[in-house]
Design brief:
Chain A has one domain: ABC transporter involved in vitamin B12 uptake, BtuC (Orthogonal Bundle). The longest helix of chain A is centred in the N-terminal third of the chain and has 32 residues, at about 1-35. Chain A is built from twelve helices and no strands. Chain A is globular and about 55 Å long. Chain A has helices spanning about 1-35, 40-60, 65-85, 90-110, 130-150, 150-160, 160-165, 170-200, 210-220, 225-240, 250-265, 270-285. Chain A is about 75% helix and about 0% strand. By secondary structure, chain B is mostly helical. Chain B has helices spanning about 1-30, 35-55, 60-90, 95-115, 140-160, 165-175, 175-180, 185-210, 220-235, 240-260, 265-280; strands spanning about 130-135, 135-140. In chain B, a hairpin with a 2-residue loop joins strand 1 and strand 2. In chain B, helix 2 crosses helix 8 (about 185-210), helix 3 (about 60-90) packs across helix 8 and helix 10 (about 240-260) packs across helix 11. The longest helix of chain B has 30 residues, at about 60-90. Chain B is globular and about 60 Å long. Classes of the chains: A mainly alpha, B mainly alpha. The interface between A and B is large, with 42 and 46 residues.
Chain lengths: ~290, ~290
């Protein structure tokens, strides 16, 4: 087990980050599954992280309560802005959520209680591996159930054709709001977990770039399954570590991956039908 | 004091307008939100800087070079990335996400090639004159920036309104399919538009780089956000809206920085943008949007 201890002391933060990124990728998967391109998930993550960290540091709430507050607060914010914002569609929704994200970031930057541009320092390291594993497992289970439920099918109907869904009697506005709010809930949870193992948070971690990173994870992995986004999140977390030798050119690869996936794998890396077809054909050749 | 601020606002606003014009034209003609436009802006200022400091080129040559260089980047993006996506009839988010990738690649290349630190134009190549109009200190540089920005915008306006090329572009903006049936070389004009808009973005980068005399790999990002604010303010794809929106943002930003706080200046732009989207998603001058099923 010694090798494991060595490995863990060096890489535990990285493994934790993989888990948090998987959660974030799932949060945007949820909004995408209802046909909404929201770039606000990084901001929701930030709201969750700051609320949770402030509750731990200033009021010394217990960790489960902190996590819950970190998830519920952004969900409430989503509920509030959702009603007007979700009237927009397509690129307009993307732009509006992007603008909302910037407003959140600049607000955090200017508030006294958040520590402004210096960020919050000295957040206790409470998050443990099993917390992340448990929350991730519960999230995956819930989303898998949700997909097969009436709600999940309504999301899919709205994504495929909003007007047809409306004509079939689906309350489109309410389902969109639900997807948006649940996405914010998961993103906030990820933020709250993240804040309690990084020791330090700053507004810089919740800007446009991070919103794009989250989107990239889902696009890279593919959004037809739940595995896709998590795979994408894992790859994009590990890739920069593997490419340390490239120094300043490191993120060049991220950009290239994004372009290549859009060009050549429009449904992402993890696409069951294509993978099955690939292996199926191989078997056929051997026979 | 107020007059001085207004001059600053006019300088900034005219460059914002120039930047946003390219941005909005791409959206109008190609129907793509080009999120690499900020990075192309940054490429323009580095290209000019490289020509001035390594080739000892005079400033006006460097400006032309920057336009050419960033224009070629825009053209390559269209030929290598957007064209295959068009051919495949990809959903409208695909090109947007691809341009995010282009932006990341350009920014990280600039950082790798030139370093992350702030670079500056050598002082002696900047137009140095400064004179007093009433109480206002007017730098020759500011006059030049405003003049160049408005000259380029005027050329663009006349081209779009009065020439055969402009009419063809406006036809494509209405409907690429109908334009194709009318015998317009749609693909060719997509390439032209990509080149011209990127060139405009690049020269805007040179002008901002000169105005603040500070160039960093990250300078494109805030500019991209401002560009988004401007084209939403003016209505997406609306040329006149981009001009007025750009000037308006310049004034709103400078005034709120002067009379509120320096950080809140940025929040004002986005708060405004957020509000506009909620109240009038088609922009201040936009037509009512048709719902396309």
């Amino acid at each position: 087990m010694e090798w494991f201890n060595d490995f863990w002391s060096t890489y535990s933060t990285l493994v934790f980050t993989v888990g948090v990124h998987a959660l974030l990728a799932l949060s945007i998967w949820l909004t995408l599954s209802c046909g909404l391109l929201s770039l606000a998930n990084a901001a929701f993550m930030g709201v969750g992280a700051y609320v949770a960290a402030l509750l731990t540091v200033n009021l010394e709430w217990s960790f489960p309560a902190v996590l819950l507050a970190g998830a519920v607060t952004p969900a409430l914010v989503a509920l509030l802005i959702g009603a007007p914002v979700l009237r927009l569609s397509g690129v307009y929704l993307a732009m509006a959520t992007l603008a909302f994200g910037e407003v959140v970031r600049i607000t955090i930057l200017n508030l006294e209680i958040t520590g402004g541009p210096e960020g919050l320092n000295g957040i206790p390291l409470i998050t443990e591996g099993w917390h992340i594993v448990l929350i991730l497992a519960v999230t995956i289970y819930s989303l898998a159930r949700l997909r097969r439920s009436k709600i999940g099918r309504a999301f899919e109907a709205i994504k495929e054709d909003e007007i047809a869904a409306r004509l079939m009697g689906i309350n489109v506005d309410r389902y969109k709001l639900l997807a948006f709010t649940l996405g914010a809930f998961i993103a906030g949870l990820a933020g709250a977990l993240n804040a309690h193992f990084t020791f330090f948070i700053s507004p810089r971690e919740y800007g446009f770039e991070n919103a794009v990173d989250i989107l990239t994870m889902a696009v890279l992995g593919g959004t037809t399954t739940l595995i896709g986004p998590m795979l994408g999140g894992t790859i994009l977390t590990l890739l920069p570590e593997l490419l340390r030798s490239l120094h300043d050119f490191r993120s060049l690869v991220n950009g290239a991956v994004l372009i290549l996936v859009v060009l050549f794998l429009p449904k992402g890396i993890w696409e069951p039908r294509r993978i099955r077809a690939f292996f199926g054909r191989n078997k056929g050749d051997q026979a | 004091m107020l007059e001085q601020q207004l001059l600053n606002a006019l300088t900034l606003g005219s460059v914002y307008a120039l930047f946003a014009l390219g941005f909005t034209l791409v959206f109008g003609v190609l129907a793509v939100i080009n999120l690499a436009h900020g990075a192309v802006f940054m490429v323009g200022s580095y290209a000019a800087l490289a020509m001035v400091s390594h080739l000892n080129a005079p400033l006006w040559v460097a400006m032309l070079g920057a336009m050419l260089g960033s224009g070629i980047v825009g053209l390559l993006v269209d030929v290598l990335i957007l064209k295959p996506l068009r051919a495949r009839n990809a959903p409208h988010l695909a090109p947007m996400i691809a341009t995010i990738g282009v932006g990341i690649m350009l920014t990280s290349s600039a950082q790798g090639l030139f370093g992350a630190e702030v670079l500056r134009f050598p002082e002696d190549i900047l137009p140095a004159g400064e004179f007093l109009v009433g109480d206002v200190h007017v730098r020759a540089l500011e006059i030049a920036i405003v003049a160049i920005a408005f000259l380029l915008m005027a050329v663009l306006f006349v081209t779009l309104k009065r020439t055969q090329l402009g009419r063809a572009l406006r036809a494509i903006a209405e409907s690429p399919k109908a334009a194709y049936l009318l015998g317009i070389n749609v693909e060719g004009l997509f390439h032209v538009t990509s080149f011209v808009t990127a060139a405009l973005g690049g020269i805007a980068g040179v002008l901002i780089g000169l105005n603040f005399n500070a160039i960093t790999p990250q300078m494109g990002q805030p500019m991209l956000h401002k560009g988004i604010a401007v084209i939403i303010l003016g209505g997406m794809g609306d040329i006149r809206g981009a001009l007025i929106g750009g000037l308006f943002l310049g004034f709103a930003e400078v005034i709120s920085k002067a009379y509120l706080s320096s950080q809140m200046g940025d929040a004002v732009a986005f708060g405004l943008l957020f509000l506009i989207l909620l109240v009038r998603p088609s922009g201040l001058f936009g037509r009512k949007l048709e719902r396309k099923a």
